[in-house]
Write a structure and sequence with these properties.
alpha/beta; Rossmann fold; seven-stranded parallel beta sheet; 13 helices; 12 strands; elongated
Length: 332
């Protein structure tokens, strides 16, 4: 019997699919993160481990599972998984980003409109009883999205979904990526520009690039200074892609108009953090991909991919170490 260990609770549709095929399922029902003792006990005879981006999968954790063949990521970003360590131990790694990334793209649009149209400030204005004071003050004068240039930093799957959304609104979209994507340019009508040029030309800069050592503080003080003073920055990648101290300075001193952030270098963000004191910022608690529909679809896709591996002996779509995965399939 194939044993699947879930380090998190996900939608029941996944468990229904797996049990239909006779899989044994173990689920962590405790708090936010399972203790080492739980992993040590549950992984000893496990064939697959399911984690989220908040669970660290490293050499030590892998050592608890001598039978482990698969690590499945319920999500998109995978910087929490030591891919090299998994490959050395002949563990296949795959992820389920599609439904979550589509949800994140929608959240990007929500953040952009909330910031540009001053939705949060308008809400506060009404709740504070200031509406009765007379006509809306100049502080609530907002900007239209129509005619604005959109710049996307990173053109992976998430970047593509974001680009599709803004192109459907008839907006000009340019992008920078570590590797140029000619197919995306042709299919979506995007323009590739170097990063510094993108920052200088865009009215809305959206950060979707994967977080790696190379992209740590990719958006730093030097690059923030290249942005228009009327531009806004949106980050739905990882907090470490943007230098927080430099961003606070940029927002406080007016180098840029505002920022909308769903991810932070420090999570949870402390209530007394300087970002929480700024009125030209919209903040959400890392919930961009957290929709009911995305959770159900991702749960279903993950279970179907586990069936694909262990029953059908086929590779999932989004594998992260393909050669290792192929060799595991041949050995099953």
């Amino acid at each position: 019997m194939v044993k699947i260990v879930f380090a998190t609770r996900i939608h029941r549709v996944a468990f229904e699919i797996l049990r239909k095929y006779g899989f044994e399922v173990e689920v962590y029902e405790g708090g936010r993160y399972p203790p080492k003792e739980w992993f040590r006990e549950k992984l000893i005879d496990a064939d697959a481990l399911v984690v989220t981006p908040m669970h660290r999968v490293d050499e030590e954790l892998l050592g608890y599972g001598p039978r482990l063949k698969v690590v499945a990521l319920f999500g998109s970003g995978y910087e929490n998984i030591d891919i090299d360590a998994c490959s050395r131990r002949k563990v296949c790694v795959f992820r389920e980003p599609e439904a979550i990334d589509r949800a994140v793209a929608e959240h990007v649009l929500a953040l952009v409109l909330s910031l540009m149209r001053k939705v949060v400030e308008g809400d506060r204005y009404v709740r504070e009883g200031r509406w009765s004071e007379g006509p809306a003050p100049r502080e609530l004068l907002s900007s239209s999205l129509e005619g604005k240039k959109i710049g996307i930093v990173g053109m992976g799957l998430l970047g593509r979904y974001v680009a599709q959304l803004f192109r459907r609104l008839g907006l000009e979209v340019m992008y920078w990526s570590r590797r140029r994507k000619l197919d995306v340019e042709e299919n979506l009508g995007l323009q590739y520009v170097e990063l510094d040029d993108l920052l200088a030309q865009s009215d809305v800069v959206i950060v979707t690039v994967a977080y790696t050592p190379e992209t740590h503080h990719l958006i730093d003080e030097r690059r923030l200074r290249k942005m228009k003073s009327s531009a806004i920055l949106v980050n739905v990648s990882r907090g470490g892609v943007v230098d927080t101290n430099a961003l606070v300075k940029a927002l406080s001193e007016g180098w840029i108009r505002g920022a909308a952030l769903d991810v932070f270098e420090e999570e949870p963000l402390p209530p007394d953090h300087p970002l929480t004191k700024l009125r030209n910022v919209v903040l959400t608690p890392h919930i961009a991909g957290y929709t009911r529909e995305a959770m159900i679809e991702t749960s279903r896709s993950l279970a179907e991919d586990l069936v694909r591996i262990f029953i059908e002996r086929k590779l999932p779509k989004h594998v992260l170490n393909g050669d290792v995965c192929a060799s595991i399939l041949n050995a099953l």
